[in-house]
Specification:
homodimer, Carbamate kinase, 12 helices, globular, Asp_kin_monofn (chains A, B), lysine biosynthesis (chains A, B), ATP-binding (chains A, B)
Chain lengths: 402, 402
């Protein structure tokens, strides 16, 4: 098999941990597989460089930040190669550019346009472990770029797709995806398999291990992703794959919790045609990710709008809301809420999934403020103080500990 | 004017010092010049990375060391660009490869094959300060290489030559070339100008500020080099240029001292044809730089050979000497010697320069063990304990403090 392995900043955070990564790779090579390893910068390095840059400028040129930040991954890739070579496993490090990763010119948040796998294939054919500096590429004109948050995961998934690897293993300090956050519900169980769509909806469960951007790309390129830990490599991890590959689909796969949401209420909104469109276009233009929206029926030519946004976007949102002051009687911002989501592909073909959730929450006297459902997800907004209780009640209601 | 400026590791050793370098560049830009700045890694960074690598392997692959070590200069180039941009001076960082520096494939000690100045010229034409990561290039095939010791100086000189810059200023923590080491002779004076050849012969005076490899390249490419300090940029420094550019040539320019020499004596050598050739070929094959050689006249079919080598090569030299045991009666290694050199292009057209040296040394009762002369240099080997005394006596004899 050809395996693409990705090791994050924590997994390569010290010289000892890089040595540990070399040991993991050696075992996989011994099992007869070909390996492309994608590495992040040693944890702390990137932040140190950002601090350096910010000591000079609040707004350093993105292209210069790319030159600066791309160095950390290069260091790790060389060190890992040296450790592998020393152990008798031939290895070669490659920068993003050298690995053939060509991006657009949006410095610090570039998108991969294509990957020329020639150099990697050549080295794999020579029996070498290819160690790629993650998080980076080059523009058509040859300037170095970085891919933004989660860029190293993205590098690994994109390479796995381009080179048609059998699997892409993302190593972090967490050994897989759980039915819910084990810190909230100790009975949470590690999932063996989960579909891309479920993973995307369970984002908050996977946020620390997998960014949505990478899961989306894995889905698009049909890459089998595995989330596992470099600290317990003997544990199998969770396979994220397409729905068809999962034989027995549970009705509910997991419960996600998102506390970083604000509910915005707009009361007494003049009910003229297109008003909702104006408001949400203004928010979209400011790149604010509006999630759940509820509009109440108009009474006396007035209507109400409720929606949620990420807490980080609250200040920008308030600025935008000012523009609509003439048409709205009252604004209301509530940060003391949270979003609990029940996710499962099995919902599609089962009825009564939602009512079970509502009953479970009602039994705990938890009031639901907003409900929103999709094919494979039911989300509810509840008061923040009920967050953990709601998660546990739902985890229990769907027997996720079984 | 188009100026290429090079700032060494000490000059960019801290964030404050990089800011100071930005201030120097800003002033030069304000004076109406175009600037290409070549930077080293922040002092300490390269050694840290070498330590990292050596913790894994005593013999890391040179190509991996290049990937590793080339990162430090990239960081400095981005940071300096950010500092300049913030001050309102448009700047762009370039890796060696991006600056068009193409080398051979001898990793960790690559030689520059050519420089494609297109990218640099384009940015200069846009009024930008170009900040090049020194010490590195890429092979024809696009793999990163480093240029070995003094590589950043070499980068600057090669760029100045390729782009036909008016001057190449090498900034260190020393403000120029002195008639002798001021720590030995406080009356030593800074030279305004000196020829390439004199500089090469005065290597030990310039060793801390200029490597011979860079001076040789400057001579070959006819680049006007200036050695000056980034800590006292108001001081003019020393211009190293071709002989024709120096109107009034002093008879003696400086006195150099080299304590890192060993005198090797071979006594009772069988005087057969080619014996000296065998010996020195064996030493050359081991890359030992043999300096001064004296052969005494043969008596009874036996001869004596005396020569000097750098102290660092002593152990290898001894190993080689063993091969000649059958043909040599006695070997003798003396580390307690030093080489004092009197350098000056004016010697060519003046007589009595050597006799003045011998008189000065004799007046101090310093015995000369070996003498060797070239067109512009007289070197003598004396006992190491007389090193400083010899330097001061000669400095005085040629009125270098005047």
């Amino acid at each position: 098999m050809l395996k693409v392995l990705k090791f994050g900043g924590t997994s390569v955070g010290t010289l000892e941990r890089i040595q540990n990564v070399a040991t993991i790779i050696k075992k996989i090579k011994d099992d007869g597989h070909d390996v492309i390893a994608v590495v992040s910068a040693m944890s702390g390095e990137t932040n140190k460089l950002i601090e350096y840059a910010e000591s000079y400028s609040k707004m350093p040129a993105p292209s210069e930040m790319d030159m600066l930040l791309s160095s950390g991954e290069r260091v790790t890739s060389a060190l890992l190669s040296i450790a592998l070579n020393e152990a008798g496993y031939s290895a070669i490090s490659m920068s993003g550019g050298r690995a053939g990763i060509v991006t657009d010119e949006r410095h610090t948040k570039a998108r991969i346009e294509y990957i020329d796998t020639k150099n990697m294939k050549e080295s794999i054919a020579e029996g070498k472990v290819v160690v790629v500096a993650g998080f980076q590429g080059v523009t058509q004109k040859g300037r170095v770029t970085t891919l933004g948050r989660g860029g190293s995961d993205l590098t690994a998934v994109a390479i796995a797709g381009a080179i048609e690897a059998d699997v892409c293993e993302i190593y972090t300090d967490v050994d897989g995806i759980y039915t819910t956050d084990p810190r909230i519900e100790p009975k949470a169980k590690k999932l063996d398999k989960i579909s891309y769509d479920e993973m995307l909806e369970l984002a908050s469960l996977g946020a620390k291990v997998l960014q949505n951007r990478s899961v989306e790309m894995a889905k698009k390129l049909n890459v089998n992703l595995i989330s596992r830990s470099s600290f317990t490599p003997e544990v199998e991890g969770t396979l994220i794959t397409k729905e068809e590959n999962i034989m027995e689909q549970p009705i509910v796969s997991g419960i996600a919790l998102d506390k970083n949401q604000v509910r915005v209420g707009m009361y007494g909104v003049t009910d003229r045609p297109g008003i909702a469109s104006y408001i949400f276009t203004a928010l979209a233009d400011a790149n604010i990710n509006v999630d759940m929206i509820v509009q109440t029926v108009a009474v006396d030519g007035k209507t109400s709008l409720d929606f949620t946004i990420p807490t980080t976007d609250l200040e920008i949102c308030k600025t935008i809301m000012h523009k609509f002051e003439d048409e709205v009687e009252k604004f209301d911002y509530n940060e003391k809420i949270c979003k609990v989501s029940i996710v499962g592909v099995g919902m599609k073909s089962h009825t009564g999934v939602a009512s079970k959730a509502f009953t479970a929450l009602a039994n705990e006297n938890i009031n639901i403020r907003i409900i929103s459902t999709s094919e494979i997800k039911i989300s509810v907004i509840v008061e923040e103080k009920y967050a953990e209780l709601a998660v546990r009640a739902l985890h229990d209601a769907y027997d996720l500990d079984k």
